[in-house]
Amino acid sequence: MLEIRFHGRGGQGTVVATILLAKAFFQAGYQVQSFPFFGVERRGAPVEAYVRVDKEKILLRTNVSTPDHVAVQDQTLLNSIDVTRGLKPGGWVLINSPAPPTDLKPFEKFNLAWVDANSIALKHRLGTRTHPIVNTPVIGAFARILGMPPIEAIVSAIREDVPGEVKANVRAAEEAYKAVKAVKQAKG
After folding, report:
1. Cα gap 173→167, rounded to integer Å
2. What pLDDT is recorded for position 155?
3. For residues 66 and 152, what is the distance between their CA atoms, to the nearest angstrom?
4. Full-model pTM
5. pLDDT tens by residue, 109-143
6. 12, 135 in Cβ contact below 8 A?
7. In a domain, 188, yes or no
8. CB 136 within 8 A of CB 162
9. Residue 87: strand pairing partners
10. Which among 57, 59, 114, 165 has most CB atoms closer than 10 A?
């Protein structure tokens, strides 16, 4: 079973990102679960959401405490939350950032990737300058670093479930898929 945790802030589309990613995996032939965990429910508050993926039926009904991979939709969360909490060694950490973190030590047991989802979202007019909606670029980049689900499944999930700006969201996901940068650095 593959377990993925998303970190974001309220209003960034973190929960929608996990729903779209789950639907893309489902279209690719997997069994899926997608669910959020809310603390304070307000714009800008930290949010976690999860995706489980397996070829077999998923019977587990708990939060994801030891994810295989993590996506961080807001790089400022790196200063206040341990985004690698429980992350399995060798897992991917995808960060929405124009560059890798300056201090790589907290990530030395993991593989690290980054994509400037904010710039991609703004380029495609997703959200506003102060509140870009980065969910579709992040899932596009995530599909690339994991090697699954296929980008075609991501595009299909966006077309089926994003209520507005479908073409812009598809272009943003495809651009992030191509733009993500990664370094395999896990030691072990």
Report:
1. 10
2. 97
3. 28
4. 0.92
5. 999 999 999 999 999 999 989 889 999 999 999 99
6. yes
7. no
8. yes
9. none
10. 114
